Amino acid sequence: MSDPLAQIEETLEQHLAWVRDRARDKAAWPAVQQHYGLPPTPIAFGGVTPDHVRAVVQQLVRLAATQLDALGTTVAPARIEALWNRLAELADTEAKQQASRASGSLGHIFQNATANVDFWQQKHEGWSLQLTLICKSCGAAQQKTRDFKCSYCSGDLFRRTH
Amino acid sequence: MTPDQTALWQRLEGFLGKIEERLKEIIVEAENGLGVLFAQHPTDPMPIGNAMSGLDFRVKDLVKKIDETWSSQIEPKFEAAGDGRFLDKGLDRKRDFELHLEEQWDTFKVKAMSAYYRAMWPLVQAAMQKPVPCNRCGAELVLPVRHESVSLPCSHCGSVNQVLVDTAVSYWFGGGAAHVFAEEAALPCRYAVERFRVQVDRDRRGRSWGQETIEQLREWDRLELAYWNRYAEVKAQVLGQPVDHELVKSRMDQFRKYSLETNQVWRRANPA
User: pLDDT per residue over A80-98, tens digit each?
Assistant: First the structure.
């Protein structure tokens, strides 16, 4: 092939196709990780996750970027820029696709399962697990458990989170 | 079997084979989807529980499909194709298959949940080791326990701090992990109960639906007790507490009240 840019694109597509195919089989995944220079992590439960795919595709992107860098900007600058842009988003895009591929026809069950939980998590973000009661009048902290009168000025204690 | 019966039998096997294939697909897809969910929510079992309910519904649909197809299409043909023995054989095959399906699904569910809680443990440990500073002076509080909410005065400034349990720790010790691990360990005992009940039904059918024998009822009682003992034993191990004999007793009391004491043979052998 005479067009070096097309060669990089074709190689990238071949690698991606191979990774996508292997991402269906958790038993085959450690070999994929090893192939791209990552430590193999056998998956005990669950399939190949979006994070697994993201890590591998990031390696793949690095390889393609090195080749693309060597080309410089002399050949077809618009195409080169388009490929750079694609590489910048490739890992996230592939990870997202893996998330929707993973659960197949049951995808909506998993979407519903998180919808409600995400709402409440956002609502209570930053909520403290620790609190002290302080006096409304002088600001002193509670000194004795179950004693709701300030030991300094006898004012009422009220709840204050950290 | 006559050629007609052989053909019917093969059709039944083909139908059950398709159902089993679908269950396997659901299990593979569910494992992948749950894996993603585990990674997204490593310390919050709520979405996992939500997903399990949805998946359960799918599997119940499959079991319902067996029943519907059996009643509307298979049973009439089995009745017409021979004497009652051929129909009984078909019914046994259906029941064995349903049991097999339920066992496969229950095993998957329990294994999924135990994998989730096992993966959660390092996060729970990290949360329990995290230092907790006093809300007023910032000095480190010496908490007597980390899996229960405590209210204690700071040893430096005397301010009372109410420290709630970390969410992951609360889910782990609040019954989630203990229940799941106990259920996982006791699952073979539950299967033993279910299989025994199927055997008893077949024995009764062989005796023109005669009553269950007292030996059979005692065996049922023994198997049920073995299940709850195993459950309580593992739960106690996980929580680091003594075995909760009261739990076993209450479950067995319920079981005896509604399953055994309504049986005349049992009542005669065990007058109140």
Answer: 889 999 999 999 999 988 8
- Return the residue in B25, B28, B29, B32 with the most chain A beta carbons within 10 A, the one to mutate for interface testing: B32
Q: Is the dihedral of CA B230, B233, B236, B242 positive or negative?
A: positive
Ordered by start, the domain boundaries in chain A are 4-103, 128-162
> How far from B103 is each of B46, B58, B64, B111, B197, CA to CA, in Å?
24, 15, 16, 12, 14
User: Could you tell me if B179 and B104 lie in one domain?
Assistant: no
Residues B121, B2 share a domain: yes
Tokens of A73: 């900007």
Total of domains in chain B: 3
- Nearest-angstrom CA–CA distance, A140 and A154: 10
Compute the average pLDDT of residues B199-214.
94
A162 band by pLDDT with thresholds 50, 70 and 90: very low
Domain membership of residue B2 as a residue range: 1-126
Q: Which residues of B touch A121 (CB under 8 A)?
A: 44
